[in-house]
Backbone:
């Protein structure tokens, strides 16, 4: 009887500490999770690095879904081949690789704003190249393992158009190179570019 009582005492004291240890562990895990969430919510600056937004194909469903026939009717054969069949135009042949006008570059399929001339640079690769996206939320990236290479494909998030690839050999401050197909892009010149500031207000003319 007495030895048994002693055993009970020791095991009770051990049990008394166990929940405290578990609770402390839980607090640590919760704190770590919260910090991770906080870091995640502050991540947009890093969001466009090749790895950061790479998703599996099953995850991605574009907002705009049209049939192959519909796209074919709306696009030129070259645009269709590149954007809907993941083609690549030959370097130095597209209309924007050496294009330097100020303005916006949009998705040729759906008009989503993607890049601007402000981050376009001469990469020497023969395709229009940008070191940053103007509207990162309009871009979707995923791993592309075709042609025996592992690359990061860039697509329009709204309509799923293939735009090109993103590489990590770009200039600072981002270090990335968005290598796009001209056939995937539509250019909108900056309003009033090349014109002086002096202009006649049309409202006054109406009075
Ligand atoms: Zn699009």
Residues:
């Amino acid at each position: 009887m007495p030895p048994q009582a002693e055993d009970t005492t020791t095991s009770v004291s051990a049990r008394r500490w166990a929940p405290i240890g578990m609770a402390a562990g839980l607090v640590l895990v919760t704190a770590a999770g919260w910090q991770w969430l906080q870091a995640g919510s502050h991540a947009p600056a890093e969001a466009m690095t090749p790895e950061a937004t790479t998703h599996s194909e099953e995850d991605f469903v574009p907002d705009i879904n049209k049939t192959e026939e519909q796209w074919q009717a709306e696009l030129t054969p070259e645009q269709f081949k590149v954007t809907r069949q993941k083609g690549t135009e030959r370097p130095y042949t597209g209309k924007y690789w050496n294009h330097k006008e100020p303005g916006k570059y949009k998705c040729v399929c759906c008009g989503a704003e993607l890049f601007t001339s402000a981050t376009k640079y001469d990469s020497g690769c023969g395709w229009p190249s940008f070191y940053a996206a103007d509207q990162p939320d309009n871009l979707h990236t995923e791993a592309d393992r075709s042609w025996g290479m592992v690359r990061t494909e860039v697509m329009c998030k709204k309509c799923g158009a293939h735009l090109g690839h993103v590489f990590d050999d770009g200039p600072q401050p981002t270090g990335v190179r968005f290598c796009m197909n001209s056939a995937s892009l539509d250019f909108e010149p900056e309003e009033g570019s090349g014109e002086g500031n002096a202009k006649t207000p049309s409202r006054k003319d109406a009075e």
Notes: The chain has a mean pLDDT of 78.
